[in-house]
Fold JmjC domain-containing protein.
Amino acid sequence: MTRKDSQAAQERPAEEPQGKPSRKGKKHKKQQQQQQQEAEQQPEQQGQEQPHGHPYGVQPWGNFYLTGVPEIRTAGLGLLSPLPDELLLDLLFNLPAADLARLGLASKALYCFAHTSELWKALAIQELEGDFAWCGSWRETYLQHKARGYVAHSHRPLAVQGFYSDFLHQPWFCANVEIQLRWLEVDNIERRAGLTPEQFRAQYEAANRPVVLTDAMDDWPALTKWSRQYLTAALAGRPVIVGNMPWRFSAYMAYCDSGAAQDEMPLYLFDKAFAAASPQLAGDYRVPAVFSEDLFEVLGEEGRPDYRWLIVGPARSGSSFHVDPNATCAWNACVSGRKKWIMFPPGTPPPGVYPSPDGADVAAPISLFEWLLNFYEEARESKHPPLETITGPGELLYVPRGWWHMVLNLDEAVAVTQNFVSSVGLPAVLAFLKQGSEGLVSGCCLQDRSSLHDRFVAALQQRRPQVLAALAAKQAAAAQQREAEHRLCQLFKQPGQQQQQGAAALPDQPAAAAAAAAAAGGSNGFCFGFQVAGSEPAVEQQAGAAAAAGGGFSFGFDIPAAAEGGEGQGQQDSAAAEAAGSEAEQQQQQQQQQGGKGKGKRGRQHKSEVTEEEAVCAAAAAAAGEVAKKQKHAGGKRRH
């Protein structure tokens, strides 16, 4: 079960899920029926789920083969039974509340579908628009606010037998599964204190590595002031943003106390306007010195993309896997509670997470617990396991650009997070914004996204021109270095490659092949040739002429054919080549000694008169001597 999503998704501690499926046997069946009858007689308790199983009796399909209870889905859905459960639920999202309630009376199977919590959650969010008090469950909340004459908490859930659905059972299971200790054992992200801004940039920001800073929040008043009571008073009189919905903070706290128990994806408070609406909260924290440079500031508060949020959530809430927007970096400061982090480096999507080619959409498990149950072990056993840690009160995590990360609140948690762009990350941000895609650029109005790059560059040119100048100089130097490396590669690789290609194309015309290879070397190249005794001498001459025409130079030397001239002739040729090599070495040493005898400017000038061609030819002659020695040595071995 997947969906395109990068929003928050978790749950709170709850009862244990249903244990082993029931087995055949009269005594066990009688006890099971007795428990279900007792459950039907108990009213719904303020949104709390029954401890022994799904409140409406939904079971996974695997239990069908163990319980022996016939399935009722096919008969109960009738003509709708061929539809997958996921598609059928998508259709039900389009029904108004009255029709949804009537549909639940048609059959036991449709009763299970019509009482799915996500359907009533969508109705409450859409129609009540955040102006409501939490009443214990999404269905109860909606009915108490919208249904005339409805008696509060009068609903008694019916535990249906024989209805199997993995799709409907898994949200309940994920909402009730306990946090496993193996998910919390790994802690492999560095923790540092006392870093200067220069040290942080060199060791972590430039390296694009995450780190936990344990002393960055030491001077924050928020660490001692931000209790639930303090936040309720500070945020009174204005709505906060919860799941893209405005909601009173006090109502959200009531939801955290009970409603998160039911939701596979509990609502998460992500308020980007808290600082402007509650200046006292903005004064309770300070941006750490290592993050003091934020170049988006040149756009002003109204012109820059969204960048800071107050985050509040119950235990088991959090954010599913995502990459921070606009190629920015971020820091997340934990004020209270504990947060579990799992991170994957850029270009390494987590198992089970599938981004679209352009990165605009992400298909992922619908909740954090679904990912942890199905993919955590696979991630830990992979060649590149994730980085993990737990941050507590007073600890701040640096999230580098491009890193995939998820967050699970282990307790009710309060945090502040900010995205920023410094001189180190400016090239990546500008490259990202230059695309101008409305689906990729985020944090501002749709009509402003395509122009964000140009507006940002213009503002930098006006207010921080030295930053752009330094960036241009750095890019020019990098371009020159790449060009130099390219020329060096062409100098040594291309002539040899062209020679091989030419020889393969014209195996019976060695002279033409060598000339073409030398000519292909282009300017500033050279040709290195061997003349084997008995071969065509025009090869070397034509290659040299082609190299000279190309602006380069060539050199070569003869290698005697020892095998063809007999043993005596091979020895004579080897001796002659060895003598020539020794004579060339002596001449080169004499030239170097004469050049070294000059003093001052005159001596240096005399030394520079030795041309590059002469030096290379001398080296070639020395190499010929080495070849002759090897041949002589090989000939001696054959004689013995």
In short: The radius of gyration is 38 Å. The chain is about 45% helix and 15% strand.
